[in-house]
């Protein structure tokens, strides 16, 4: 069953001395809420900024400091922590801790544990821009990268020194997303390529106005996240949305149905699975005015022309060129849900269609929940009762995993 890859994983979160240590508390909290088992190590400098008790309170587990290195309970605490870790993240990673990691120095609990660990290492630098740009720090960064560590950030922005520059640690949610992605890579869909469309296309009338729809992109983005969680490589072709794309997705922003058609056509050759979750406009203005249409023009009618049905074109491509392509569509219906969805399944030559009743206020467009029925080519139907779009997406991805197995 597809689930958040962080669930039940041992995350070793090593916190060194940077004011960004407060963000590590939020990260530990988010990871714990996702079901991860978070072991925190604080350096002496980190202890001056946040306490072990703070971490213990959010993780429900002992947080370790240098006093544990020579401590009473276990004399090889660094080995225990290193062995059970599925992944180690140093966040914030100060210039000093990065130097120790790069050169194999083991003079505190963080650095000896890093020496003992064989799991993937993720480093989230946080320091002043000048320290980050220093040739010594850059050389250490390169050593760590060449040794296989993943470096995430730092970002440009306001620094504790009052200056602006590159050195800000990424936010907790971003660090969480990187860990989630790295831990997903060997899951069942590893090596499978997914092409997913999302959002509602916009068809320009003039430079300020467009014909659009209520799609928020939530379902398509949630499907991209669920496919990534299951190990897939995901290209996400998205019409404009306010959502942040999942870490690891190759985002291709588009605006109109025509743009989406072009990008889908460019990428379909490499795909094993295509999911068309986008609400693509069926009509566009026959002409788009280069200048703003003025009130005085007394526009009474709009001349529209049909767009290409992308999914139908994909169905034809599947028939003539690539029968192995697994094609999944959505059917947004306000009446005769299953009958209309079934017609689209056949007519567009799909393997699977997800029927969506958009007449309900708690399902379909722009809300967080959905209730769908999956229709298969052999006539089978499977209802997924009302749930949030994340869970619906996991169930759809599980269904696709089964179809790929067949
Ligand atoms: N679709 C598409 N290109 C279009 C219109 C729709 O690829 N120009 C895809 C959608 O992404 C969805 C499926 O076709 O996966 C069904 O879309 P929907 O809007 O439910 O139906 P239509 O085929 O547009 O038919 P109608 O609007 O008449 O219901």
Characteristic key phrases:
Rossmann fold; 20 strands; six-stranded parallel β-sheet; binds cytidine-5'-triphosphate; 406 residues; elongated
**CATH architecture annotation of the largest domain:** 3-Layer(aba) Sandwich
* Approximate strand percentage: 15-25%
What's the N-to-C terminus distance? 16 Å
Strand order, largest beta sheet: 13-12-9-14-17-18-19-20
Question: CATH H level of the largest domain: which superfamily?
Answer: CoaB-like
- Contiguous low-pLDDT stretches (5 residues minimum) are none
Number of strands: 20
Ligands present: cytidine-5'-triphosphate
Helix content: 25-40%
CATH fold name of the largest domain? Rossmann fold
Average pLDDT figure: 95
Alpha plus pi helix count: 15
Radius of gyration: 25 Å
Return the CATH class of the largest domain: Alpha Beta
Number of domains: 2
Helix/strand class: alpha/beta
Describe what this molecule looks like in 3D.
- The chain has 406 residues and is α/β, with parallel strands linked by helices.
- It folds into two domains: 10-182, 3-Layer(aba) Sandwich (Rossmann fold); 193-405, Rossmann fold (3-Layer(aba) Sandwich).
- Helices cover 36% and strands 24% of the residues.
- It is built from 15 helices and 20 strands.
- The chain has helices at residues 21-33, 44-49, 52-59, 66-69, 77-84, 95-103, 109-116, 129-133, 135-146, 172-184, 218-229, 257-267, 310-320, 337-347, 389-405, and strands at residues 10-15, 37-42, 63-64, 87-93, 121-125, 150-151, 155-158, 164-168, 193-198, 203-204, 210-211, 233-238, 250-253, 273-276, 283-285, 304-306, 326-333, 352-357, 369-376, 381-388.
- The strands form five sheets. It has an eight-stranded mixed sheet, sandwiched between helices.
- Helix 5 crosses helix 7.
- The longest helix is centred in the C-terminal third of the chain and has 17 residues, at 389-405.
- The protein is elongated.
- Residues 257, 276, 278, 280, 282, 307, 309-311, 329-332, 344 line the site of cytidine-5'-triphosphate.
